[in-house]
Design brief:
Layout (H helix, E strand, L loop, with lengths): L3 H42 L1 E3 L2 E3 L1 H13 L32 E3 L2 E5 L1 H17 L5 H7 L2
Antiparallel strand pairs: 1-2, 3-4
């Protein structure tokens, strides 16, 4: 009887607000879905070792070293001219990260993860600070 009437008057308003919410949700997630599928495709194509991403040169290097038995035969190591570098923040080897990135100490001083965090932190702090320096601008473009 009387208790049903207020519920019925709220229903159209509730339906309208739910529809608005659903439309906004579709718009909000649309770009993220596209970005995610692209990232997913890249992640599926990347080679892994024990679940972690590895560069293709690290795998070919392991195969070459296993077949040569660490004898160091000429022509077996293409990456000899690229020296191994450690991340100045976390200490991980450059052979265990997809790429080395620019950090506060210069190019190829941070691993991929630390470099991205540092660049993001620099870009965010740059918005707050009025005076901007050139190295920070270069780092944000990475």
């Amino acid at each position: 009887g009387l208790s049903d009437f207020p519920g019925r008057s709220i229903q159209p308003q509730r339906a309208a607000s739910l529809n608005r919410f659903r439309e906004k949700r579709k718009e909000r997630c649309f770009e993220k879905k596209i970005r995610y599928t692209v990232r997913k495709e890249v992640a599926l194509r990347m080679q892994r070792k024990k679940g972690q991403f590895t560069s293709s040169k690290a795998i070919s290097e392991e195969v070459a070293s296993a077949s040569s038995g660490w004898s160091g035969t000429p022509g077996s190591g293409q990456d000899e001219n690229i020296q191994e570098v450690l991340c100045t923040h976390c200490g991980i080897s450059s052979k265990k990260t997809p790429m080395m990135r620019r950090g506060p100490a210069g190019p190829r001083t941070l691993c991929n993860a630390c470099g991205l965090k540092w660049a993001n932190k620099v870009c965010l702090s740059q918005e707050r600070v009025v005076h901007k320096s050139i190295p920070h601008l270069i780092a944000c473009r990475l």
